[in-house]
Amino acid sequence: MTDATEHPLEDAATLAGVPDGFQRLWTPHRMAYIQAGPEPLKHDCPFCAAPGKSDEEGLIVARGETAYVLLNLFPYNSGHLLVCPYRHFSTYDEATPEEVAEIGALTQVAMRVLRDVARCDGFNLGMNQGEVAGAGVADHLHQHIVPRWATDANFFPIIAKTKALPQLLGDVRDAIQGGWPII
């Protein structure tokens, strides 16, 4: 057993360097996104690749005929889902009537499941179409479903450009898929 006086516990105020008053929130899963940069997305579409993987590996919670639902790999909140058509196209006006109907139906089911499983108080829904509109994957249409709670807002996103996520992606996927109705 190590003597506590020999190796004292350190916090952000006493770590090496000049104390800055910041606490550190470790999010190592984001390193893959940071290191890869935008280049892989220009060559390999993650939304075309996901359906070819197992549900667990692709973070898929439900599969329909023309569209599917998966967790966002870089979520704004725990339970942040994406509804994607299988077909590769970039803007909503290119969707077939069947794709529009299924994207809408899957969005409704996802909201019901998240309300039940995650006990969220509301949602942000949206599609960023085109790089200029903020789409991270501009070439493959996808709709965001972001669950919101009355207590989920704090200073992190505004001051520190950081979002605290209280659950691991695999645990969130299992809970949402477990709550998805059998069709």
Could you outline the blueprint of secondary structure elements for this entry?
Elements: H1 31-36, H2 39-43, H3 46-49, H4 55-58, E1 60-63, E2 67-71, E3 81-85, H5 97-117, E4 122-126, E5 143-148, H6 156-160, H7 169-179
Brief synopsis:
By secondary structure, this protein is of the alpha+beta class. The protein has helices at residues 31-36, 39-43, 46-49, 55-58, 97-117, 156-160, 169-179, and strands at residues 60-63, 67-71, 81-85, 122-126, 143-148.
Would you mind describing this structure in some detail?
With 183 residues, this protein is of the alpha+beta class. It has one domain (28-179): HIT family, subunit A. Helix content is 31%, strand content 14%. The protein has seven helices and five strands. The chain has helices at 31-36, 39-43, 46-49, 55-58, 97-117, 156-160, 169-179; strands at residues 60-63, 67-71, 81-85, 122-126, 143-148. Strands 1-2-3-5-4 form a five-stranded antiparallel sheet. It is globular. It starts with 30 loop residues before the first helix and ends with a helix.
Instruction: Assign the CATH architecture.
Output: 2-Layer Sandwich
Number of helices, counting only DSSP H or I runs of 4 residues or more: 7
- Overall shape: it is globular
Distance between the termini: 56 Å
Any key phrases for this structure?
183 residues; alpha+beta; HIT family, subunit A; five-stranded antiparallel β-sheet; HIT-like; AP-4-A_phosphorylase; nucleotide-binding; HIT domain-containing protein
